[in-house]
Structure formats: C-alpha cells, structure tokens
Write a structure and sequence with these properties.
This protein is 32% helix and 20% strand. With 306 residues, it is an alpha/beta fold. It has 2 domains: 59 residues, no CATH class; 224 residues, Spore Coat Polysaccharide Biosynthesis Protein SpsA, Chain A (Alpha-Beta Complex), CATH 3.90.550.10. The protein has a 7-stranded mixed sheet with strand order 6-5-4-7-10-9-11, with helices on both faces. Strand 1 and strand 2 form a beta hairpin. The N terminus is likely disordered.
C-alpha cells in the first residue's frame, strides 16, 4: 500500500486504505510539551505526572459520595466489545470480569465485533454474539464503531440498555444496579481522569464535524472508553455521530481524538440527556489508588499484547 501525503489548510494527511487521517506528527505538534517530556523521561513518568495533576480532584470526588438508589429499570443489557486482530486477546479478561462484576443481577449478552470469528474463547458460550467485521486499520476501526452498532439495531430490540466498553478494560470491582442506575438520564458517560481540573482536548477546528465552539460548555471532558444508555437513544446517537464522521471522511477530515472528539461534541450539545459517572469507571492501571477510592474498571493493556 502506498502512503501519500498532501496538505489541506493546516492539515497534513496520510493515505490509509483510501481514507485519510491526521498525520501523527500534527498531533505531536499540538501537544509539544507532552511529547518532549515523554521522550526524555519515558511514558511512566508522564502518566504519574497526570495522576498528580488529577489527585486533588479525585479526592474531592470522594467527598461527594451519597447513598445511591436505582432510578431506572434495567431488564437486559447488550455489552459491546470491539476487538480486531490481536485485540481479540483481551476478550477472555473482558468477558469473565464484566460477566461476574458488572450489574451482577442483570442478564447480559456480549456482542463481539471482530475479524477473528474463530477465536477459541468465543465457542460454547450462549451469551456471546459474534458480529464479523473487516479490519481497516486502527483509526478506521475506532471511528467505525458507531456505524457497527447502528447496523445491529434489529439484533438489539430485546435489550433495555447498550453499554460500550473498550476492549482493554476489565471490571475490577462489583458495580451494582443500584449504584450504576442512580440517575434518570437515558445516556451515560464517564469523566476523563486526565482532565478533571484542566480543560479537555475538544476538537475546535471547524473543518471537522466534531468541532465545538469556545462558547459551548466545555467544563466536562468525557472519555470514549465507557459509555452507553437506553437502547433507542444509543442507536439514534450512533447514527447521528456516524453521519458526522462520514461527512468528515468525504471532506478528508479526521478529528484530533477520533471517536472521542465526536462523542464529546454529542455529549456537550445534549448534556441534558447525559449522566456523567466518575473516573473510577475507566481508571488508568498505572495510577496509584487513593485510600477509599473504589475503582470499578481498570484501563490496562498489561502483558496481553506482548
């Protein structure tokens, strides 16, 4: 495959299976200090600095814990797993921990979107539904998740809720129905742990359909690793976001943080529909855990891909 580059305005493009994505060098230029420190001191040091930056905000979240009461009925949940190529290797940990610890009193089925349909762990499990997809490269697969979910709307008819969770996450602790559905909003997301007390990295370049304005409410930046809600609202959300992504593709635009940029635009513009969970639903595994802080999900690649 040939890699061709061209410039369009302030963007540098790289050909990738017929779809153009922002060249990684442009992303680095947008965040020069981070990459400078990372190159000198290493990734672990940068991650620890991020923890120190968020530490006080994490402590504050502990003070705001109140008794929770389930405020919406959950009958059956569709868990979405996206794992192509080697990422399918995350599925055993993903499946076993979520099946046991997440909403333990609720019926759950797992929809696995993958190009590895013959993976051994999928076999002989009634609550795993395999959805074959063609691998198109990391950025394309990340941006295609909304299209994939919308494409199985008929298969989701019997479910009250749909929950998307990144493949490299796992349920560390039990999350009960009472604490998780402690709200009435039809959609939920989680606060990005690295942007609790600093501005999030929203897309502000208006060449992309993910762009927001500086006069939007940019007080909460949500991470794309954990989100969901009532089935009909999720399907409609995925359709709307995919329309924006497809228009970006036609215009040879990909937002700076891919799916996360588009999700954050939707959440900001529809904040009345969103309940935002704490960062303990996607806690970085390399961060220390504060005393009294209950980590529900770890974000952790670990040794699985090595």
């Amino acid at each position: 495959m040939e890699n061709n580059t061209e410039k369009k305005g302030n963007f540098q493009w790289q050909e990738m299976d017929g779809i153009r994505s922002l060249n990684i060098e442009l992303v680095k230029k947008r965040h020069p200090l981070k990459y400078f420190i990372e190159n000198i001191f290493g990734d672990k040091f940068v991650r620890y600095l991020k923890f120190l930056r968020s530490k006080n905000a994490l402590k504050e979240s502990l003070k705001n814990k109140n008794p929770t009461f389930q405020q919406q009925k959950c009958e059956k949940v569709a868990i979405i797993f996206m794992g192509s190529q080697d990422y399918v290797k995350f599925f055993p940990r993903f499946y076993s921990t979520i099946n046991q610890n997440f909403l333990p009193d609720t019926k759950k089925d797992f929809f696995a979107f993958t190009d590895q349909v013959d993976y051994d762990y999928f076999k002989d499990k009634e609550n795993i539904k395999i959805i074959p997809v063609k691998y198109g490269g990391p950025a394309v697969m990340t941006l295609s998740k909304f299209k994939f979910i919308a494409s199985i709307a008929d298969k989701l008819r019997g479910y009250s809720h749909v929950v998307y969770i990144d493949s490299d996450m796992y349920a560390r602790d039990i999350t009960t129905e009472e604490e998780f559905f402690c709200h009435t909003q039809p959609l939920f997301a989680m606060r990005h742990p690295c942007f609790l007390n600093i501005p999030g990295q929203f897309e502000l370049n208006h060449q992309s359909k993910a762009a927001l304005n500086e006069n939007d409410d940019l007080s909460i930046y949500r991470q794309a690793c954990f989100w969901g809600g009532k089935k009909d609202h999720i399907i409609e959300m995925c359709k709307q976001i995919n329309n924006g992504i497809e228009e970006d593709f036609r215009n040879k635009i990909i937002s700076i943080w891919l799916d996360e940029s588009h999700l954050n635009k939707f959440f900001v513009r529809n904040k009345h529909l969103i309940h935002t969970h704490d960062s303990n639903y996607g806690y970085p595994s390399m961060w220390p855990i504060l005393e009294g802080y209950s980590v529900k999900f770890f974000h952790d690649k670990g040794e699985i891909l090595k």
